[in-house]
Amino acid sequence: MQVRTGSDAGVVVAVVDDIPSRRCVTAERSFLAEIGAGCHTPTGALATVSSTLIWPQASLFSEDHRQVESATDLVALGILLARSLSSEF
Q1: Residue 43, domain CATH
Q2: Most exposed of 52, 55, 57, 81 (fewest Cβ within 10 Å)?
Q3: 2 lies in a domain?
Q4: What does the CA dihedral 75, 80, 22, 43 come to, rounded to 10 degrees?
Q5: What is the pLDDT of residues 7-62, one digit of tens each?
């Protein structure tokens, strides 16, 4: 949820905010934003929490839904993260 900074609603939202869920949603939305996915993009993203680790999964389908590319590779995710961070220096 989003609320205006300093509003009373912020206190209520802080009580119901689930940090692991928020982190998963952030990972999923980041994937969708990176590929420019819209409402009609044949794709899916799911991040789950196991212990303290987030496990991302993503699939991208062709327009006719006959081909699919899926990823759950944490090594690839780590490489992408490293490239992203190193490009800022």
Answers
A1: 3.30.160.40
A2: 52
A3: no
A4: -90
A5: 888 888 888 888 888 888 888 888 888 888 889 888 888 889 988 888 888 888 88
